[in-house]
């Protein structure tokens, strides 16, 4: 039985307030100061059913804890060549805001090849962009708009998508809830005329500014492609993750200088000295590894390539 909206939110909040501390902490990191609005979003996803909503939310929070999602924006995709390869083959970008203040994201589904890096790198990239959207983009949109913004508008370019993939939509459609299906609108051509009803020209994806549909990976005249590393969104995203990685501190103290050594019987002290020397070398090796990790830097050449959008 579904509860009234206000009663459902209060009931769900009381249940979430009693979860274990790790789940409570990641929920705080997820709602960014808007717990009621976040609970309402989850309730809408489960048609107001508190039991189903609680399961969905707990599954989400557990996944976040188990996969350390709270720290994922402090984990750059490395080396830099792999990051560039991911960006070239996973076409996504933010183009601006709708007339209602919603961030506009563009996705080039048909021309995304996902073949230049390992699966885990694409998954990491996908999660990082979503987390950056929730942690940075949406709070900034809320501040800019003057009222809560908790969702975005996505424009999908289907150019290049195979017919076999399109045929699968008939299978996927019954799996979507009616409220979700109502949000999806299929536009002809570049979709420009319809999109201009909900956003200004400046916020249009670059492929919708053209006379015909079709994503491009590089700049087109004065238009900087929303998928390009030269686009401000990708520059800001990259710099944010790099800064978070720099600011990140170890969660546990590094134990250096304390270890157990089995001391052999050695009246002359020779074996003892050799044993201690061996253990110290091991410790020195661990310290070198730690220092190496903390001193990793992108060389100036690769930094310049990234900032200039030169991926060749």
Short synopsis of the structure:
The chain is mainly alpha-helical and 312 residues long.
Task: Provide a descriptive summary of the structure in words.
- It is built from 14 helices and 3 strands.
- A hairpin with a 5-residue loop joins strand 1 and strand 2.
- The radius of gyration is 25 Å and the shape is globular.
- The termini are far apart.
- Strands 1-2-3 form a 3-stranded mixed beta sheet.
- Helix 1 runs parallel beside helix 4 and helix 2 packs across helix 4.
- The protein is 51% helix and 5% strand.
- It is mainly α.
| Overall morphology | globular
User: Termini distance?
Assistant: 58 Å
Percent of residues in beta strands: 5-15%
Order of helices and strands: HHHHHEEHEHHHHHHHH
Report the average pLDDT across residues: 79
- Unreliably modeled segments: 212-221, 282-302
Proportion of helical residues: 40-55%
Q: Please give the order of strands in the largest beta sheet.
A: 1-2-3
Mind summarizing the main beta sheet? 3 strands, mixed
> What's the alpha carbon Rg, rounded to whole Å?
25 Å
The total of beta strands comes to: 3
Secondary structure tally, helices: 14
Record the SSE blueprint:
Layout: H1 5-16, H2 21-31, H3 35-45, H4 50-66, H5 80-89, E1 92-97, E2 103-108, H6 119-145, E3 153-157, H7 163-167, H8 169-172, H9 178-181, H10 192-195, H11 206-209, H12 232-247, H13 270-294, H14 300-308
Helix pairs in contact: 1-3, 1-4, 2-4
Which features would summarize this protein structure in a list?
312 residues; mainly alpha; 14 helices; 51% helix
């Amino acid at each position: 039985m579904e509860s009234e909206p206000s009663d459902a939110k209060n009931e769900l909040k009381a249940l979430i307030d009693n979860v274990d501390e790790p789940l409570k902490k990641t929920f705080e990191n997820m709602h960014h100061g808007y717990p009621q609005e976040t609970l309402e979003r989850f309730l809408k996803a489960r048609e107001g059913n508190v039991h189903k909503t609680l399961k969905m939310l707990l599954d989400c929070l557990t996944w976040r804890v188990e996969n350390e999602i709270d720290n994922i924006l402090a984990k750059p995709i490395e080396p830099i060549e792999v990051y560039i390869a991911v960006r070239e083959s996973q076409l996504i970008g933010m183009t601006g805001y709708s007339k209602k203040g919603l961030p506009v994201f563009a996705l080039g589904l048909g021309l995304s090849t996902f073949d230049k890096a390992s699966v885990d790198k694409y998954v990491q990239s996908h999660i990082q962009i979503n987390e950056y959207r929730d942690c940075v983009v949406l709070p900034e949109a809320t501040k800019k708009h003057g009222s809560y913004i908790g969702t975005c508008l996505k424009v999908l370019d289907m150019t290049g998508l195979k017919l076999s993939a399109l045929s699968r939509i008939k299978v996927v459609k019954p799996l979507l809830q009616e409220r979700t299906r109502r949000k999806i609108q299929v536009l002809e051509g570049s979709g420009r005329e319809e999109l201009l009803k909900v956003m200004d020209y400046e916020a249009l994806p670059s492929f919708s500014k053209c006379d015909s549909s079709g994503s491009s990976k590089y700049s087109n005249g004065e238009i900087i492609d929303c998928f390009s590393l030269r686009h401000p969104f990708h520059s800001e995203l990259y710099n944010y993750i790099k800064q978070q990685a720099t600011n990140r501190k170890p969660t546990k103290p590094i134990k250096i200088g304390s270890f157990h050594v089995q001391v052999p019987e050695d009246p002359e002290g020779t074996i003892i000295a050799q044993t201690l020397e061996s253990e110290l070398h091991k410790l020195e090796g661990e310290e070198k590894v730690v220092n190496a990790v903390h001193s990793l830097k992108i060389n100036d050449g690769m930094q310049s390539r990234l900032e200039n959008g030169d991926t060749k």
